[in-house]
Design brief:
Helices cover 79% and strands 0% of the residues. The chain is an all-alpha fold.
Length: 109
């Protein structure tokens, strides 16, 4: 195995670890938010207005955290794909017809 292949393998392993631990961090934080919300609702003993506020805040925090992680991961994957030469910009350039070399000459009356 050459050095480049070894580096590529380590790079892939690093990306897998980042994705795995990033997802783990999001799941753990979402579970912590849910646990705090459940504990808060349990402590309030039926005050509906505050319960709605706590549940709304918890839902907003969970959805924001998850959306941020997925958005950052998608942008990271797209940037990596483009940097390696297999991105949408390269595919579009390959599939487009070649541009004319020079514009046609103008005729004068």
């Amino acid at each position: 195995m050459s050095r480049d292949e070894g580096r590529a393998d380590r790079g892939n392993d690093l990306e897998k670890d980042r994705a795995r631990y990033g997802l783990l961090a999001v799941v753990v934080s979402n579970l912590a938010i849910a646990a705090v919300a459940v504990f808060g609702v349990w402590q309030l003993d039926g005050d509906d207005a505050v319960i709605v506020g706590i549940l709304t805040a918890a839902f907003t925090a969970v959805s924001s955290t998850t959306t941020a992680y997925l958005g950052i991961k998608a942008v990271s994957n797209t940037a990596k794909s483009i940097a390696l030469g297999g991105g949408p910009a390269r595919r579009h350039a390959e599939s487009a017809p070649p541009a004319p070399a020079a514009p046609p000459a103008q005729r004068t009356p």
